[in-house]
Design goal:
Blueprint lengths: L1 H14 L12 H7 L8 E17 L10 E17 L2 E16 L7 E16 L6 E11 L24 E13 L3 E14 L2 H4 L15 E18 L2 E12 L5 E2 L5 E3 L7 E11 L5 E10 L27 E13 L1
Antiparallel strand pairs: 1-2, 1-14, 2-3, 3-4, 4-5, 5-6, 6-7, 7-8, 8-9, 9-12, 10-11, 12-13, 13-14
C-alpha cells in the first residue's frame, strides 16, 4: 500500500509552502487583473460566490383536477471560491454544496431528499513563464454527501439506506499543468492522478460486486490514472451568469472484476472514462428574486444501473429507467440570492 499513500500525498507535499507576510491588495478588480499578468509582489485574497435558497409550496382542497393535497420543497445551492495570489503563485479553492428536501401530505410530511452534494477542490499552481498563463499545479478534490440516501420507490424504503456521508467518498490528488485566465477559465490536465474511493462495509457487503467500485466487503478502492478538469464562468449580463465544469478520469489500473469462481461480474478497462458534466445558470430577475437552473450529468462504470428491482424481473418505478448508467440531476430554484 506504500505506493497508494505516496501517490495520494505527493501533490500535497509539493504544493505545501509557508505563506509570507505582505501587503494586502484592497481593490478586488486589480487582483483579478493581476491574475492574468505577471502578478504583483504582494499577497492578496480574492473571494466570491453565491448562495441561493428557494422553496415551493402547494395546497389543495376539493380540487377537481386532483393532486398532492399539501407539499413543500426547500432547496439550497452554494457555489464559492477563495483564491490566494502571491507573485507567480496561485492557491485556489472552490466549494460547491447543494441540498434539497421535499415534504408531502401523502407521506405524512416525512422528508424525502431531492439533492445532496459536497464538492471541494483545492489547487496550488506556480506560473511556468511570466509571459504565459500556464501553471505547474497540484490538485486535491473531495466529493461526498451530507446525509443518508434512500430508494423511495421501495415499500420499506427507510429500512435500509443506499449511501451516507463518506459512503461513498472520493479523494483525488493530481499533478499536472493548468491553463488559467483570471478566475473565469481553468483547464487542468494531469497524467499522474490518484483516486481513492471509500465506503462502509454495510454497502459493499450487500452485492457480490461490492458498491461504488469498492470490492465486496472492502472499505477502499484505489485508482491511478489521468485526470482532466475544466471550468468556465461566463457573465452573460450584469444579472446573469453561467458556470460550466467538465471532469474526466481514466483509470490505468482498470480491469475486469471476477468472483471466487472466476466469473466476470463487472467489465472494466482504461477506456471506461468517468465523466462529470456540471452546468449552473443563475439569473437575478429583480432585487430580491433569483432563478437558478442546474443540470449535472455523470457517467461512472463503477456505478452500474439495473432496470429491475434486486435483480428480479420486476421493473423499477423509474421514469428514466431507459437512460442506462447515465446519472442525471436537474434542479430549478426560484428564490432569494445572496452574492458576495
Amino acid at each position: 500500500m506504500k505506493h497508494v499513500y505516496f501517490s495520494i500525498l505527493l501533490p500535497l507535499i509539493i504544493t505545501a509552502k509557508p505563506f509570507n507576510t505582505a501587503a494586502q491588495i484592497s481593490n478586488i478588480d486589480d487582483v483579478k487583473k493581476s491574475l492574468q499578468t505577471t502578478n504583483l509582489d504582494t499577497i492578496a485574497w480574492v473571494y466570491g460566490g453565491v448562495l441561493d435558497i428557494g422553496a415551493n409550496e402547494g395546497f389543495l382542497h376539493n380540487w377537481a383536477a386532483g393532486g398532492e393535497l399539501a407539499s413543500l420543497t426547500v432547496n439550497g445551492i452554494f457555489s464559492g471560491h477563495l483564491d490566494r495570489l502571491h507573485n507567480k503563485e496561485i492557491w485556489s479553492n472552490n466549494l460547491d454544496i447543494t441540498y434539497g428536501l421535499n415534504y408531502t401530505y401523502s407521506t405524512g410530511f416525512v422528508p424525502h431528499k431531492t439533492d445532496d452534494r459536497i464538492d471541494f477542490t483545492s489547487k496550488y499552481g506556480k506560473r511556468i513563464d511570466s509571459a504565459r498563463d500556464i501553471f505547474f499545479t497540484g490538485l486535491f478534490n473531495f466529493k461526498s454527501q451530507f446525509t443518508k440516501g434512500y430508494d423511495y420507490t421501495l415499500t420499506n424504503w427507510d429500512s435500509s439506506s443506499t449511501s451516507k456521508f463518506l459512503s461513498p467518498a472520493y479523494f483525488t490528488t493530481a499533478i499536472g499543468l493548468e491553463y488559467r485566465r483570471g478566475s473565469d477559465i481553468s483547464l487542468f490536465l494531469s497524467p499522474i492522478a490518484g483516486r481513492l474511493t471509500v465506503a462502509d462495509k454495510y454497502y459493499t457487503s450487500q452485492l457480490p460486486q461490492g458498491a461504488f467500485g469498492v470490492p465486496y466487503n472492502k472499505t477502499a478502492y484505489y485508482q491511478f490514472g489521468a485526470y482532466f478538469s475544466g471550468r468556465y464562468v461566463y457573465n452573460i449580463s450584469k444579472n446573469a451568469i453561467y458556470k460550466v465544469r467538465l471532469d474526466l478520469y481514466s483509470n490505468y489500473l482498470a480491469k475486469d472484476t471476477k468472483d471466487s469462481t472466476g466469473n466476470i461480474i463487472k467489465r472494466d478497462n482504461p477506456g471506461n472514462i468517468s465523466v462529470l458534466f456540471d452546468n449552473l445558470l443563475s439569473w437575478k430577475v429583480s432585487k430580491y428574486l433569483n432563478v437558478v437552473l442546474g443540470a449535472t450529468f455523470i457517467y461512472d462504470n463503477n456505478i452500474p444501473y439495473s432496470k429491475y428491482v434486486d435483480n428480479s424481473s420486476t421493473l423499477k418505478d423509474d421514469p428514466g429507467k431507459n437512460l442506462g448508467w447515465l446519472q442525471i440531476k436537474q434542479v430549478f430554484t426560484l428564490g432569494v440570492e445572496y452574492k458576495f
